[in-house]
Amino acid sequence: MLDLLITNATLPDGRTNMSIAVAGGKIAEVTQGMTAPGLETFDAKGNLVTPPFCDPHFHMDATLSYGNPRVNESGTLLEGIALWGELKPSLTQDAIIERALTYCDWAVARGLLAIRSHVDTSDPSMLAVEALLEVKRRVASYIDLQLVAFPQDGVLRSAGGVANLQRALDLGVDVVGGIPHFERTMSEGAASVKLLCEIAAERGKLVDMHCDETDDPMSRHIETLAFEAHRLGLQGRVNGSHCTSMHSMDNYYVSKLIPLIAQSGVSIIANPLINITLQGRHDSYPKRRGMTRVPELMAAGVNVAFGGDCVMDPWYGMGSADMLEVAHMGLHVAQMTSQGGIRACFDAVTVNAAKVMHLQGYGIEAGCDASFVILQAPDSMDAIRLRANRLRVFRRGKLLAQTPEAASSLSIADRPASTSFLLRR
Ligand code: FE2
Q1: Most buried residue among 2, 231, 395, 404 by CB atoms closer than 10 A?
Q2: What confidence score (pLDDT) does residue 247 get?
Q3: Candidates 40, 98, 202, 213; catalytic one
Q4: Residues near 235 by beta carbon (within 8 Å), at least 6 away in sequence
């Protein structure tokens, strides 16, 4: 017994005039030209129907706090870190929850239905951890929220760092995080990677570390992470986030490093908006871009995804939960303007990100969850070019959000105001 039919859909792989039949929250059938008179039907009019956007790298405990207690005047990473330190003592659980729920509403309107968020575990009170665990419970019916235990101040550098991280995992945080380049020395950073991977292996958890988020060509933590993933049999379960130092590394060294990453089954997340903004700040001219080597990693078979990282927080005052904006920046920074490169940038915020997160039932094929977004664009290239309207956002067969069709594809500037929310918390 079918519940819903989407007709005349174009799929990301290029198939056109496709029908997607939905039953019981699952995709029952994907076939060409199917009709079902009497059944609730939505005509996609040849537009692209994609699985939902996924953000595999975000910081929901800080989002939408921009200007609190003051704005980042210099716009630098260092002032951002100082600002976060000023904000932390006044944080309340209610304020974190409220901001995060608002962000999740924005996300749904943008068809962003899966988010991996790091949560700072440095505070022994577990304030942010408990707040985001509550958010995870509250949004469960419309967003897959995965949490990473993130020792922002360094798991070895800060007093009680290991115990706090373990407590966060005990409370139900999903993934083991880390920040080896922020430990006191390169060797202590390497020790933190080994320790955290061992904790993940013991607990059966995934790993996602901020890794080498610097311009230092000698930073080597992604190498250690790949080695530990291989040593502990964690292939396919470990991710290195940022890895911006790879941009500056010696080419000979990278020719050895990328095969190691591929063999270790480690995925990589670049955060284009933030990497292009925060890296290269010590350069005069020429200024480095500071994003990791996306096309080279992809060519070697490494799963590479793009994350949003920050939206309106102490580090970054821009952003709007739009993963097409992230893909757009990634495409430019990595010069991925070939036809294959453009499609790969779209994959980086959809299927590749879902793979990093180990999402089940993701995709537009029979048996998958009936979760998809109808975009006002004929293909992934125009979707990125226009940061296209999300005409309809479905999750498990249920309509979550809709945006009226813009009369002209160039009139998307008024898109946010016209987005209507159908959310019920
Ligand atoms: Fe981050």
Answers
A1: 395
A2: 97
A3: 213
A4: 229, 264, 265, 266
Rounded to two decimals, the pTM is: 0.95
Which residue matches tokens 């999903």?
174
Query: If you measure from the C-alpha of residue 309 to the centroid of ligand 1, how many angstroms do you get, rounded to a whole number?
Result: 5
Q: pLDDT tens for residues 110-120?
A: 999 999 999 99
Same domain, 325 and 375: no
The last residue of one of the domains, among 337, 356, 375, is 356
Between the CA of 57 and the centroid of ligand 1 the distance, in Å, is 6
**Residue 308: CATH number of its domain:** 3.20.20.140
Examine the domain organization and report whether 189 and 155 are in the same domain: yes
pLDDT at 76: 84
Domain assignment present for residue 421? The answer is no
Let me know whether 180 and 310 are in one domain: yes
Q: Which domain holds residue 226?
A: 53-356
Distance 342 CA to ligand 1 centre (A): 24
Separation of CA 152 and ligand 1 centre (Å): 9
Span from the CA of 58 to the centroid of ligand 1 (angstroms): 6
Distance from residue 357's CA to the centre of ligand 1 (Å)? 15
Q: Is the pLDDT of residue 341 over 70?
A: yes
Q: How far is the CA of 270 from the centre of ligand 1 (A)?
A: 10
Q: Are residues 205 and 325 in the same domain?
A: yes
- Same domain? 106 vs 181: yes
Query: Is residue 423, in this structure, part of any structural domain at all?
Result: no
213 flagged as catalytic? yes
> Is 424 inside any structural domain?
no
User: Dihedral, CA atoms, 7, 54, 418, 20, nearest 10 degrees?
Assistant: 10
- 314's CB contacts (< 8 A; 6+ apart) are 62, 65, 66, 72, 79, 80, 81, 83, 84, 87
In the predicted structure, residue 69 carries a pLDDT above the cut 60: yes
What pLDDT, on the 0 to 100 scale, is given for residue 407? 77
- Of all residues in the chain, the percent with pLDDT exceeding 90 is 90
172 and 31, same domain (yes or no): no
User: How confident is the prediction for the chain on average, in pLDDT?
Assistant: 94
Number of domains in the chain: 2
- Percent of the chain residues topping a pLDDT of 70: 96
3-state secondary structure 47-89: CEEECCEEEEEECCCCCCCCCCCCCCCCCCHHHHHHHHHHHHH
| Domain identity same for 90 and 196 | yes
Reply yes or no on whether the pLDDT at 412 is more than 50: no
- CA 307 / ligand 1 centre spacing (Å): 9
The answer to whether residues 38 and 185 belong to one domain is: no
3-state secondary structure at position 222: helix
258 falls within a domain: yes
Phi-psi domain of 24 (left: phi exceeds 0; alpha: psi -120 through 50; beta: other): left
